[in-house]
Known about the structure:
Radius of gyration: 21 Å
Strand order of the largest sheet: 7-8-11-12-6-9-10
Distance between the termini: 44 Å
Largest sheet: 7 strands, antiparallel
Shape: globular
Order of helices and strands: HEEEEEEEEEEEEE
Helix content: 10-25%
Structural class: mainly beta
Number of helices: 1
Amino acid sequence: MRAFNFVTFLIATLAAPCVTAQIKTFPYEAKVVVDEVFVRSGAGDSYYPTQKLPRETVVTVHRHDPGGWYMIDPPQGSFSWIPERFVKRMSDTEGEVAEESVIAFVGSDFGDEASVFQRRLKTGEKITILGQRQIIMSSGEQSMLQIAPPTRERRWIPGSA
């Protein structure tokens, strides 16, 4: 009986940290533990990288996705793109979406990528303008506004990072 109690105690002691480590309440903050990690526009290596984060960067995790990817808030320095023709400018840095269901595309520090979108913006939604650039899209060259990522836009990093 004594051996049974010891084995039960040992199993409970060793298993407890594993169980509590996997139970998370979302969102939660986590720290990058590798030297550097690419943040991506979607959950997988096939999505384009948007930034590179160094060790010790704190991110806000909203979900764990299949394949070990963690959905996070866009880190500091992230941006998105929106076609200028759909924005009513209020000032050099402020604008308002002028039409319904305008797509905001995920921006990248590594080029003028603008092929992934996660959010449709609504008429009247406020945006923060960071810059402007001509970008070649599938429909041809367009004047795009670089904006702060809209609310509820996300990025992904490998959970192992």
